[in-house]
Structures are given as C-alpha cells and as structure tokens.
Amino acid sequence: MKEHFAHKTILITGAAGSVGQELVRQLLALEPAEIRAVDNNETELFHLRETHASSGRLTAYLGDVRDAGKLENLCQGVDLIFHVAAYKHVTLSEYNPFDVVQTNILGVKNVIQAALAHKVPRVIFTSSDKAVNPTNVMGTSKLMGERLMTAANIVNPNGRQVFSSVRFGNVIGSRGSVVPIFAEQIRRGRPVTVTDIHMTRFFMTLSEAARLILEAAVLACGGEVLVTKMPVMRILDLAQAMIELLAPVYGYNPDEVEIRFIGARSGEKLYEELMSQEETGRAVELDRMFVILPAMRSFYQKIDYSYPGEIFPRAVPRAYVSSREKPLTVEQIKRFLQENGVLGEVTGDPSLQQVPRWPKSIHLLPVRQVGMWG
C-alpha cells in the first residue's frame, strides 16, 4: 500500500474532522511527501498540526471549500485529493439548507474545478448512506455531490483523471454520533434515549472508514461509488451493550439504567440504505465492498470497470439495507466496542482502550495497473 501514497502530495479537505484526522494519521504512516490539511475549524486544525508537527509532512491551512480561489492555490502540484469536508447533521442541515448547498454541493464543484485546473490525477469524495433515496436536505446534497463527481469524469479535458466517491454509514464514536451521547447519559446516570425500538444502522470504526477511503483511492477507475460492507446494529441493542459495559465503570447497576424511547426525529429513517434496488442492477460485488457503476454507461465507455477480487456472477441480488441484514447481538456489539477501543476513545478512559486503534501496517487488495496513478 505504501507505494501508492509514498512521496505523493495529498490534499485533504475537512482534515480536522473525525474521519479527516484519522485519514491524516494513517496516511502519515505511508510516508507521503506532503499532506495539505485544510479546514475552517481553527482550534481543531491547530491541534492536528501540533499532534503531527514532528512528522515534517503536514501543512495546515485555514480555509473553506466555498473559497474556490483558496482551493485553486492548494491544488498546485497535488497528486491526490480526499474531499471529506461537509455539513453532516440532518437536523441542522434542514434548518440551514442554503448553507448546505454552499458547502455540500458548490464546495464539491469548487474541488472538482480546482482539480481540473491543476490536472490532479485522483479525487475521492466521501459520501453518506443518506444519499440513497434521500428524505432530507443533507442526503440530497450528498447525492448531488456523488453525481457531480461521477460527471467530472466526462467533462474534463485532461484524459486520465479519476473522480470517484466512497459511501459509508455511521462512523461509530465520531463526534456527534450516538455513542458519545449514550456514554455521557450513562456517566451522568440519566436515561439512555433511543429513538425507536425498530431502528437499525450500519456501523464502522474510524480506522475502518479511513482504510476504506485509502482502498477506494487505489481501486477507483472513475465515476463509480464504492460502498463498504458493514455490520448492522439495532440502536436498542447498542444502548443495552453500552449500559452493560459502562454503567459499572461509573458506579451504577446496569439493571437500574433506564432506556427511554423518544421517537424518530423528523426526516429520520428507521433503517439505512447503502445501495438502492435500482443500483443493484449496475453493481459489482467485491470481498469487502460493492462498486456501483455510473447509471448512464454510454458516457463512460472509455473506462474499463474491472476490479481484483470480483465475485461472480456480477449481478447483486438485492438492495443493501440495514433492516434486511442480520444485526449483531448485544454480546457481539460489546465485543465489537471492546476490540476496537471505541469506549476508551469516546470516554477518554485508558482502561477501556483495550487494543490499538489500527494495525501497524495496512493490507489492502492488490490493484491492477490501470488502477494506479503515475
């Protein structure tokens, strides 16, 4: 894997966010020439820079993807862009739709145009499960971002540039996710608030999310959406698992911690979709992910969509929806949280950090020559 990123100049937007910081951490181990980390969060960007100052490979830039000129300057001499910056909270996006358009749609346009202007070989966009059959502003904006990235492969005059998207579900333990909320409620002895008894979600760790993005950068041919295979949890079972693990740590009897149902929020689905039924007809299955090919294939005939490790027959039989997949049991969720050090990460308690957050080396699928950049 190192040969694909070593000595490259890499731009990461949204680098101070949860996924962006993990992506920086994993990339630095692969010895790039430089990582240009851009974010509009001054405090988090400062901490990111201080954390990795000794590497000599990270340069921090205050900026916003709404600023097309800033992106143009940052893309000079860049080999690869990971576009992670976005507004992600459904409720806030619904109250601030015009701002979401500025960042999640026009921001993608700005990244694409800067990449085209400076002939950046590869651009990877991080999307969301909420882009599938969207019911809210945030999901719709992410879907439009995917479409812009796909179309960028046919509107560019530079030949072999690759623009692709990665779609994944909830990153467990990330800021604003349900795990830190549950952990704080348990710490304070408050009822744990679950929206609906039937609610299910796909989950992955921060480390897994970053590795998926790196793998996508290697495998992408141009215009496709890469979807990781993820475990499914019922939110009720996740709450129960966390109560059983954390309540004794904070001096409570797990049986005495109340679970309170508060109802789904407006626009919130009871399940998640990572791939729709329509998309299955143009999807390829790999060992650890699905690859959704562009809908209007006649525009992309010059791109060879073949991948190492394809599972045949190519047809994917059904939509990838959390309510249709077998969920982890409470015991399996507890093991998942412990083995990945999730609770230690969100609580800051070293005693709950049972394993390293990521392996010393990253082993990904082999890649054919056309999946590499020069």
Would you count the extended β strands for me?
Answer: 16
Order of helices and strands: HEHEHEHEHHEHEEHEEHEEHEEHEEEHH
Helix content: 25-40%
Radius of gyration: 20 Å
Structural class: alpha/beta
How many structural units, i.e. domains? 1
Strand content: 15-25%
CATH architecture: 3-Layer(aba) Sandwich
Can you tell me the CATH topology?
Rossmann fold
Distance between the termini: 15 Å
Question: What is the makeup of the main sheet?
Answer: 9 strands, mixed
Apparent shape: globular
The count of helical stretches stands at: 13
Oligomer: single chain
Write structural notes for this entry.
The chain has 374 residues and is α/β, with parallel strands linked by helices. The chain has a single domain (2-371), classed as NAD(P)-binding Rossmann-like Domain (Rossmann fold, 3-Layer(aba) Sandwich), CATH 3.40.50.720. It has helices spanning 2-5, 18-28, 42-51, 68-74, 90-95, 97-117, 137-155, 178-187, 206-219, 235-246, 277-280, 330-339, 342-347; strands at residues 9-13, 34-39, 58-62, 80-83, 122-128, 162-168, 170-171, 192-194, 200-204, 225-228, 232-234, 259-261, 273-275, 283-285, 289-292, 320-321. The strands form 4 sheets. It has a 9-stranded mixed beta sheet, sandwiched between helices. Helix 6 (97-117) runs parallel beside helix 7. It is globular and about 65 Å long. The two termini are 15 Å apart. Residues 355-374 have low confidence and may be disordered.
